[in-house]
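Progress report, Aim 2. The chain analyzed during this reporting quarter is listed below.
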Amino acid sequence: MAKDVLIRFLESMESVYGPFQMLSATDCKQWTPPPSSGGHRGRYLWTDAFGVINFLTLYRLNSDQNYLHLADSLIATVHQVLGSTRNGGSRLPGATAENPLGGGLRIGKEDEHGPDADGQYHHYLTIWMFALNRMSLATGDVKFNNQAISLAKAIHPRFLHNQISSQPRMYWKMTTDMSAPLVSGEGNTDPLNGYAVFRLLQQTSPDKTALQDEINDYKRILDRRVKHVVTQDSLDIGMTLWLTQWLEDEQTLAEQCIKQLDALFKGDTNLERSMKYRLAFRDFGMCMGMACCSAATRLETRKDEIVAMWERALPEPMSGDLQPITQVMHAAALIPGGNKNNFYID
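Predicted structure tokens for the chain:
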């Protein structure tokens, strides 16, 4: 790995979580993440999920226990803040001291009401479950995967509509207490996310049937769809490529994604022309997915061009609501590490 890639990775992470490289081992054990993830009360679930995964990437690359302490503290802080009501006065309904994730985890949106109100997203929750799973693999401590399974069981029946019917469907967004849908449509990758991530949690668990009923529900949704349709949204493509690492029909899905990438790149030979219509963090997610999928190896040069293009275009220092999510996704695109299937296998 080129030294400058690691430096850029660290710079992006420190722009969100502060100068952690300067911390002593004692300081890392006592570290509290700064409230700078771009969300309500300083936390945003997607950003912090990739923050955890990126810390675990650094741990694996450097064999430095300090990064495990940072990841552990970030996990605990997210559970405390996003596992509570917006005023911080109580746990979310369904959560208890014994099962702190029994009420799910809030997105971390700043607004309490309106079209972009806080709530719970299935695809954010599954990314968080994945981060917890990676923490178990990195530490050898099954408690994190157990937490992910508890979260999976808590949110699954809330996001499914007509669960016991022959054609169950999913809600895209629920209220913060998961009592009602905020967006009743079905997210494009949500059934795939659930199917792949829940299987991953079950495979890591000593109980090899821990989530089988839930996995069967996702399989019925996927069977209803006949086939998954990959859109031309860059993040949708990237996250689908990422998921192919854990799916049986990975080759078919990967080929669909690559076909969309070819169309996307062919229609925009000068990628910089369309930057004003795109968001950097979504393109970085696409690049991360490309790096995780062996079938996309031939597009590696194009991936590097997209990352370099955004590095030239983004202001230094970045500011605004999208700064944190952009920086953690930039780091993940540079070194996908913990997002890769076999990263923790010697």
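The two ends are 18 Å apart (CA to CA). Residues 203 and 209 are 9 Å apart (CA to CA). These observations will guide the mutagenesis work planned for the next reporting period.
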